[in-house]
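tool=predict chain=A
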Amino acid sequence: MQPWQRPAQGLCLRCALRAPTTLTGRSFSGSAHQNRARITALNRPLDQLNFDWAGGRKGKNDQKKGKDLKPWKTQGTGTKIRKVTHVTFDERFQSALLESSDVVRKELEQTKTELALWDNFFTSIVQACKSSLIDDGDEAHFGQRFTLRRTFGKMGREGIVDYLRRQYRNHKLDTAFSSTATKTDSLADFRYPAEWYPVARSMQRKIHLHVGPTNSGKTYHALQRLEKAKSGFYGGPLRLLAHEIYSRLNKKGISCALITGDEVRVPESGPVKVYSNTVEMVPIGQEVEVGVIDEIQMIADPHRGWAWTRAVLGCQAQELHLCGEERAVPLIRRLVSLMGDTLEIHNYKRLNPLKTMASSLKGDIRRLEKGDCIVAFSRVGIHSLKQEIEKTTGRRAAIVYGSLPAEIRAQQADLFNDPNNDYDFLVASDAIGMGLNLSCKRIIFESVIKRLPTGIQRLSISEVKQIGGRAGRYRSAAQSSNSTNVNEKENVGLVTCLDEADLPYIRAAMMAEAEPLDAAGILPLDSVIDSYSNMFPPDTPFGYIYQRLERVSRTDSPFFMCKIQDTEATFGLLDNIQGLNVIDKMVFMSAPLRATDPVMARVIKAFAECVGQQKSGRLLDIPELDLEILDKPVSGDDKEYLRSLEALHRSLILYLWLGYRFGGVFTDRTLATHAKEMAEVKMDRTLTEFSANSKLRKQALRKKRIKGAKDKFLANTEPTGVTDTISDIPELEDTLSDEDNLEAEYADSVLKGNRVRVPVPSAQHASVAIP
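tool=predict ok
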């Protein structure tokens, strides 16, 4: 039992004789700042239980009396321990379950057969809720109990009602199709995925495995070989990485095409030599000389691992380079032996040293230094932390999190990396773990706890090492090998945290070795799913067919079945659309969508209706797309404005993605690309021009006006005979302050072609000459 889980009650004999343990000074659910953000921002069904994030759940009587339940109480020794208030969660859950049962039962056909079938089903549900994995050993029942309780915690009674409807439908269909189970389930044998790719298996491939920590140059050396190849491909986990490799190779004169799910760029001059892809788009049907697959440890990802397995087993590359963490070595050895290939392992060391600091920031944001990156794990917490930092320090903070477009994340990282502006800090999520080059001195964990759909979870060792490895000024392998006078002491990366309670775990995680990977993810081929669905009547819900296929599938070590994200919500949408065949539904299942988001759910349904009912797929004919948000003025104070832009951007990404699969339906790819770029511009302005600090906000607006007036002035002025100055522009007469006059004086001198040295607010001195 962990110290933070220990209740304030009598000790058993074992605990009484246990050696004393130093107790943490805060709750398990996160730091004080994160708790404040949760209290004010989160609106979840658990709030109905009067849960106090800082110190347990409050009873109704305590609320009426105005009692303040403190999260801690002190024993005689003065040690703080967690105060636990009894809450009848089980009683609330049981009551909600019975009420949900009555709701669903009233919806059924009131026949004896139907009601008897329901009673048998609900009896099994009740039995599952009473089960215990330790006492009964029934994993299926225990898993159902866990899912029900988690659903109630996340969605309340309505969530249980939806769950019971789906499960009863599956139970009813299982009963109807029990006689044909043996014939249909024979197609669910996925024990030998290596046999799915006979062409690749017939080749004698040479596999190079490049392993090492973050910033060790492993990917750089693999790309060096790709640049020399006559043909090849790169497969990465992010569009951002695919864009980076595409730009890098074309700058070196290598003909490279970009192929991601929503974008295709093929050079017009000459044949394509190299393809840069997201890993899902790796061309496994094309024989090449060299292939590079990045972040190979993601082969064990529970949702996307199938794409790495497909690329490793199926690509027809004479020489395949895999780059990633050392924990992937045992699994890759097994896969290589299954395919009959040869393996060579290359080990790399970090280019700059990495250390864990001896102390934390003690919760004091004023201890932040220029170049610090603070890592948090919720969108609300990130925005709150950014506001608190800017108010406290008076300096700007860039921001990066997963739901921001890749282009905006890269722009925010560039603002942070540029030493000649006032962006001293970066507030980010675990999205910085890959795909961004950051020049940060310290990585500071705001918390080691993150909230997932399955509940609260502590960061794994690999996650701590991946994020912490971003500390230290970014230096490529080429820069490291060419540099002879590098001051390693100045380039030491430092890792710490905001609260002292998290430091022991971070220190232990940074020193520990992550557990080796033991299985690779797979998904059944589309042809198998199509054949399996043909075994059922045409009106059988596709959600039931796919879930049954998952349930009866057989896999063998070292493979496991991946879970497609948001499957239940997506099935609920697609099964109600007339005209979609199985292949169409599988395309939507593979799309980058979030069916649990209400806004995205409406968009997905509209897109699916365009395909199934042959409606117009022109961008302006789909009212569910909130294109009107692009006409509204930029607002940095309204968080819903930024959220709406993010939702629109995701919808446009989905439109472009579907446009390459249903080209005859979604025809406005050019217009969608333009709208996507407009949304990115507005998001960039929202993040850069607005700040919680009024002084910083005014400075940003002044700089915007000066730049706009300067650009307009230069556009309307002949290159020769310039006599006007920036200060003469009417738009700036009422906006220039003393600092702005310095910038205007500097700009005037630049326009006149002089070399000047005048103080500028963003830097101590500047020297520029315009020929």
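The domain at 193-347 is CATH 3.40.50.300 (Rossmann fold). The longest strand covers residues 316-324.
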